[in-house]
Amino acid sequence: MFSHLSFYSTLVEIFTSTNPPKDEPRQESDDFEIFGALRFAFGRVSSSYRAGFMKMLRWAIDGYEEDQGLIISGVGVLAGRLGTHIFSNIRSDEQICLDVISHIGKRDEKITVSHKKERCMHLVKELVAVFLNFTPRLVPIDNDYDRYVTFHDWLMDSYAGIATKLNVPRQDVYTQQLFF
């Protein structure tokens, strides 16, 4: 059902359908855009929307579920179950890795904020409007930004030959044509 859709297309399909989780229909809104700003730190995936849905699902099942059960009815039943099931065995508190925003502090191909702590403060300032309760936790252990915060600046990396950006939400047709 979702095997040839991007993550974004699948979210829209699930949550704006006539039978959405918890019977709470949603319109396409800024919520989709906000969630799409987050990235998963599994390799070089850009926005979470740009990855294929099945790949994201595999990561979630393989990486965060302790008891990986066989879904006999197929992946399509997940749309209904995700809205009603409370996950009690997800170890997200142990495995959160923020690989959040690309191009932060960049203006006209120049890095404008180079110090790690300043970048983190900039990030927290931007996210506080959306994640008020979460952002105060975005502090490295012992406030040691040099040890526990990593930024990869491809603009300053002599071995980075190219950086690509596939598309943004609502342009999923290009991702589908490219990968599927």
Please tag this protein with its features.
180 residues, mainly alpha, two-stranded antiparallel ribbon, extended, 2 domains, 8 helices
In brief, what are we looking at here?
The protein is mostly helical.
Give an overview of the whole structure.
This protein is mostly helical. The protein folds into 2 domains: 7-97, no CATH class; 103-164, no CATH class. The protein is 34% helix and 2% strand. It has a two-stranded antiparallel sheet with strand order 1-2. The longest helix is centred in the N-terminal third of the chain and has 12 residues, at 53-64. The model is unreliable at 41-45, 64-68, 89-108 and 162-166 (pLDDT under 50).
Instruction: Outline the low-pLDDT stretches.
Output: 41-45, 64-68, 89-108, 162-166
Number of strands: 2
Give me the secondary-structure category: mainly alpha
- Order of SSEs, N→C? HHHHHEEHHH
Helix content: 25-40%
Rg (C-alpha, Å): 18 Å
Q: Give me the side-by-side strand order of the main sheet.
A: 1-2
Q: Please indicate the percent range of residues in DSSP E strands (runs of 2 or more).
A: under 5%
The number of distinct helices, counting runs of at least 4 residues, comes to 8
Alpha carbon gap, first and last residue: 14 Å
The biggest beta sheet is recorded as:
2 strands, antiparallel
Mean pLDDT: 63
Q: What is the total number of structural domains?
A: 2
